[in-house]
Each structure stands twice: as structure tokens, then as C-alpha cells.
Amino acid sequence: MEKLKDSENLDPFQISQIQLYTACKLMSCDREIYKALNQPERFVEIKITMRMDNGSLQTFKGFRSQYNSARGPMKGGIRWHPDESAALVKALSAWMTWKCACVDIPLGGAKGGIICTPKEMSNRELEILARNYIRKLADIIGPSIDVPAPDVYTNPQIMAWMMDEYETIMRKHAPAVITGKPLPLGGSAGRLISTAKGGAFCIREAAKDIELNLNGAKVVIQGFGNAGSWASKILTQDFNCKIIAISDSKGGIYNKDGIDPNKALVQKEKTSTLVGLKDAQMITNEELLELECDILIPAALENVITRKNAEKLNCKIVAELANGPTTPAGDQILSKNEIFVIPDFLCNAGGVTVSYFEMVQGYYQYFWDEKEVFTALDRVMTKAYRSTVDKAKEYNTHNRMGAYIIAVGRVVDAMQLRGWL
Ligand code: GLU
After folding, report:
1. Is 226's C-beta closer than 6 angstroms to any atom of ligand 1?
2. Which of 195, 346, 347 to mutate to test the pocket of ligand 1 (most atoms within 8 A of CB)?
3. Same domain, residue pair 67 and 107
């Protein structure tokens, strides 16, 4: 196979291609197979022009990347972020493909995004943006084609508007067009906290493997959005871990004796930042990543563990709740230093797994309680965790490649059975 260059200046899509290429090489796949897997099946760029509350007209760029449909309808969230880009959405759609295959749910991978700053928009503006996005994409999404969901800065209310817009266009009920819906509209119990819950199941298993006692284990969390904030609560409640530092986009807070996640949440809700929390010292995001701890959880955006800082990490486990937080160069350093990585598309697969449960429950019109959802989630996550770690051992490689080998193998099998390869 041709050699791909490894540099820290690559965009996220090139990084996802390097990871795929490395996995294909380990699996002794032909170059043709790599080529059949390294681009989305379909990529759409759209433009949304809308009237803002202040009377001005604004135009937004949006995307949907449908990466692979061999294993089922494509699945993946929609991110609203000022730094969204075509390359990022393509990378995230690839990771969704590997994520669904790694945890063995019958779905393909997709991702969407809009370049915007939702924090600065009113509810009315958010609703118009959501409805317009669906108007532009209604022809290429659908319950058996591509099923969106929430991601960075999108939430159940936005999913409700999107579902309603799709149903209005189709002139029929079609709740299975989207997941992460509010409960009264066919959402699943536990969906909101499922990404963090799935990650917690993986952390529990990893702790057994490296013989780490979770009771009192020191945890550092980078990012305090949905995944990070719920992780802080779950790890404290379920395992009595001690959260010693947390950060958000404005900075970090640290207390060696532990931060109460509930107090952090109240502070964040009141002032929209963690910075300023009583009894905690301020630190920068860079300092936070290098703190001595047992478990480091990147739970924000991509490219935070790189060639520049990986050597300085001082933890036993990196549990990647964010998508794409570690670059390939960062990966090599973590592996050399024997830091146990729970790779992103395994660690954060709880969200899409409960999305899948939401689809199943919706089809049967029979809804489970939270306990049933989490029992089923535990089963899926623990099995995927075990097979990832075992595969990594079998191939004498690190866990990310273990997860890739399983996922790519399953997608290639499905493509071959369909006669695509
Ligand atoms: N956005 C989540 C993810 O990155 C969930 C996707 C889904 O539920 O479809 O996994």
C-alpha cells in the first residue's frame, strides 16, 4: 500500500484515514480495500439563509456526510459549532461507522454539522435553523436511510423540531427519523446520560484489567458538556471516584481533595462557566491535561492529546469520551508510555447504542425503564470492550487499533456479502 505521511498538521479527516490505513496494514488488507473504505459514500454541503431576530439576513453552511451503509441505515449526530468543517464532519462520519461496527449494532455511519454559534442564538433562531437543515436534507435522510441524533451543542429540543419538520414534509409520523428525542416524543429513558454511562462501564472494565481501585481514584475531566458533566456525576456516584479537576471552554478548576460535581453543575448553570467555583483553584486547560491522576477523560473536542503534550501526561487510563481527541503521533507516545487508552469510538459508543435502543423501542411502541436500558447497555459495552482489548493483544497493538480491526473487519464482511467488494 502507498505510504501516508504522518504529521500533526493533518486535518481530522486525514487523521481518520491514517488510522484506517494503519488498521488495514495490520490486517493485511489489499490497497483496494483501503480505497473502498477511505471516503464517504455521499457528502452533501448545504446553505441556509435565514432572518435573524435583529432583522439581519444570515447565511450558514451545513454538511451531512454519509460514510458507509453496508451494515444498516447510517447513523450519527449533528454538531452546531463555529469550527465545524467539511473535513471534520467526514472524519466524524467515518468514526461513527467504526463505532457502530465496534459495538456491533446494525447501523452504518454518518455525521452532520452547521457552522454557527448556537450560544449566541435565540430559541426562535435555533428552531428556524433546525427546520431549515431538515428541509435541505429530507430527501437523503429517513428511518431506513440515515438517522441523525444530537452531538456538540444540539439537544433533545432541537431533535424534536427536526423530527416535526421531517414529518411535516412527509405528511406522516416518522419518529424513527431521528434519535435523542425528548421522552414524550418517543425518546429513550437514559439517552441523555448514555454516552457517559457507556464510558463508565468501559472504565470499570479497564480498572479491573490494570488492577486500579476505583474507590477514591483521581479523575480529571476536560470538557463539561453533556458527556463530561454526566461522567463526573456517574463516576462519583457509582464508583466513588474523586474528581480533582474539570475544565470548560473558558478554563479549568482544580482541587486535590475533590470537586463536588453537583456544585460544579450549579455553578455552570448559573454563570455558564466553571471558573470561579468556590474551594477550587483555577488552572489552564494545558495544566489540567498534565495533572497527576488515575483517569484522564478528554470529553470536549478533537486534537487535544498530541505530539506536543502526550509525553507529559501523568495518568494510568485515558478514557476518550470526545471524538478524535488523540492524534496518531499522540497515540504512539501513549502506547510507548503504557498508558491504557479506551479509544473514542468504543468509550463514547454508549450514546449511539442507546439511540439504537430508542429505534428498537420506537418500532415496537414498547418502552423500557432506565434500569432495563442500562442493563442492555452494560452488556453491549462490556462485550465490545472485551473484544477490543483481546483483539489488541492478539495483534500486539494498542487498543485503538484493536477496535479498528474489529470494526473494519465487520464492515468489510458486510460489504463483501453484499457483493460490493
Ligand atoms: N453524537 C453521538 C456520537 O458521536 C451519538 C450519535 C447517535 O446517537 O446517532 O456517538
Report:
1. no
2. 195
3. yes
Write down the pLDDT at residue 351: 97
The reported pTM is 0.96
Catalytic positions are: 111
Are residues 198 and 146 part of one domain? no
Residues 202 and 329 in one domain: yes
- Identify the residue whose C-alpha is closest to ligand 1 atom 9: 76
Sorting pLDDT into bands at 50, 70 and 90, what band is 3? Answer: very low
Q: What is the pLDDT of residues 115-153, one digit of tens each?
A: 999 999 999 999 999 999 999 999 999 999 999 999 999
Using CA atoms, how far residue 53 sits from 56, 131, 242, in Å, is 7, 16, 44
The per-residue pLDDT of the chain, averaged, comes to: 96
**Which domain range does residue 109 map to?**
41-173
- Do 228 and 283 lie in one domain? The reply is yes
- pLDDT for the residue numbered 301: 87
Question: Distance between CA 48 and CA 326 in Å, rounded?
Answer: 32
Determine whether the shortest distance from the Cβ of 76 to ligand 1 is under 6 A. Answer: yes
Q: Which atom number of ligand 1 is nearest to the Cα of residue 79?
A: 1
Same domain, 217 and 342: yes
Tell me, using a 6 A CB cutoff, whether residue 288 lines ligand 1. Answer: no
Whether 278 and 198 map to the same domain: the answer is yes
Say yes or no to pLDDT of 372 above 80. yes
Cβ contacts of 282-286, under 8 Å, gap ≥ 24: 282/251, 282/252, 282/253, 282/254, 283/245, 283/247, 283/251, 283/252, 283/253, 283/254, 284/251, 284/252, 285/222, 285/247, 285/251, 285/252
Residue 272 has pLDDT above 90, yes or no: no
Q: Does ligand 1 lie within 6 Å of residue 93's CB atom? A: no
